[in-house]
Amino acid sequence: MTGYATDRGSASVEAAIAVVALLGVAFFLVGALRIVGTGSDVDAAARAGARAAASQYATAHAHAVATEVVSGALADRGVACTGLAVSVSGDLRAGSVVAVEVSCTVGLGDVVVAGFPGSRTVSGRGVEYVDTVRGGR
């Protein structure tokens, strides 16, 4: 029984190390999933913005509508962006292409423990063809 006396308390130390390691892995997974999920949400919002912009006739209206649609899409998906930037490029003539680029900064303050920075900028792009048969005008 003399060998067992020196091992006293080692199980609790091993358990504490295991818990800390598991928490680190969990924080890392949460941060990685947030970045990947936000990236796909920003891509989807950019595609929705491109569809909305392609339905407009004036560039100023296209930018305003795309910004509104992108903001709404991100809000609907629960993405908390700071510094949202939406840019519209392309031509609004029938048969041409409109592109919308979206950039937003996502806060990662709650997963800094896992080695992530305090925030990360995520961007996405959506491209849409302007319909060749446009009604209205």
Topology record:
Layout: H1 2-5, H2 10-54, H3 59-76, E1 81-90, E2 97-107, E3 119-129
Please, could you describe this protein's structure?
- By secondary structure, the chain is α+β, with helices and mostly antiparallel strands.
- It has one domain (2-129).
- 49% of the residues lie in helices and 23% in strands.
- The protein contains three helices and three strands, in the order H-H-H-E-E-E.
- Strand 1 (81-90) and strand 2 (97-107) form a beta hairpin.
- Helix 2 packs antiparallel against helix 3.
- The longest helix is centred in the first third of the chain and has 45 residues, at 10-54.
Molecular shape: rod-shaped
Low-confidence stretches: none
* Count of individual beta strands: 3
Briefly note the structural class of the backbone. Answer: alpha+beta
Biggest sheet layout = 3 strands, antiparallel
In terms of DSSP E residues, the strand content is 15-25%
Percentage of residues in helical conformation = 40-55%
